[in-house]
Fold this sequence. Notes:
The protein is α/β, with parallel strands linked by helices. It contains 8 helices and 4 strands; from the N terminus they run αααβααββαααβ. A hairpin with a 4-residue loop joins strand 2 (88-94) and strand 3.
Amino acid sequence: MGLWKHLQRLVKHCWLDASDVRRAVPAELVEQLTRRVGASEQRHTGEIRICIEAGLPLSYLRRNASARERAVMLFGKLRVWDTEHNNGVLIYLLLADHAIELVADRGLNARVSPAEWQEMVGHLGTALQAGQVEQGLTTALEEVSAVLVQHFPLAFDSMRRDELPNAPVLLL
Length: 172
């Protein structure tokens, strides 16, 4: 990446802040997504986390890290990898780069093709480009849920232990 592009990216990431995250995902949407994640997790044994960030931290920008690198780090930090069935999924949005990442644990990733994940990212990206954040996140959540139900359904008579919080993580 050239110096000019690097500086442009740096300014964009530093310019966006908590107000941009709150505008994209207002409190009402956080509540709706929390309920939807909880309802989804009553149908399968997986765990879903949603994380929205305005811009990358300076330490990432200095080394020109990608949104994928940040998403993988947050996947670990938010303990999405640490689920009983190794079937957690992180839906990550980086507002400054208009980047979307889906990071799935090994138990699920082995059963879902990269093309399927890319298709889900594409649907979310289309909605976000149209300014439909709620619709895009809801659709992504439904698509991830459908994959989890297909591969890790909750047995009819099973009690499910919620391993991770259901509320989206807003990095401000």
